[in-house]
Write a structure and sequence with these properties.
There is one protein chain. This protein is an alpha/beta fold. The chain contains seven helices and ten strands. The chain is globular.
Length: 198
Amino acid sequence: HAASKKRSFQESVELHVNLKNYDTQKDKRFSGTIPLPHVARPRMTVCCIGDAYHYERAQKAGIPAMNIEDLKKLNKNKKLVKKMCAGYNAFIASDTLIKTIPRVVGPHMNRCGKFPTPASQGDDLSAKITDMQSAIKFQLKKVLNLGVVVGHVGMEQDQLRQNTMKSVNFLVSLLKKNWQNIKSLYIKSTFGPVQRIF
């Protein structure tokens, strides 16, 4: 379907899951993150909050970067911190700064769900970002349907199938009664039609 209408950006492919026989009040609400074999979200933007070492590495690699001085300029102003969080899909920070960041920006990064992933000195930042672009998170809240991005329309069908299979099997492993908790599975691209796969 994607070929018939050329969009100006690469459409995501999402997996939508409907659960059954699950009581969000009584049963454990689960949350789990899994790396997929292929990059699912190439357009995901990640900013590095670095100490001198990581800041320099990020700039050399063309990764958006900030240092602790940049964060101090936000002055714990909720609006400014929110604006910074809105500018990127995720953050990485030097592990040496992880404890300092909440003291400098307050609790707002955590509240936005954008608390940084730690990076140590030996980590390759670009590889770490690729890992983040490949990881997906299933988190059950109060409703019995979940949606996650498993790929994009520019991927090979095989890659998309591998990502989808791995996502589904991982989700099933999180459920109390495994497949008996799955009512239906659908896959769809951003503007494409819905296809039922289970």
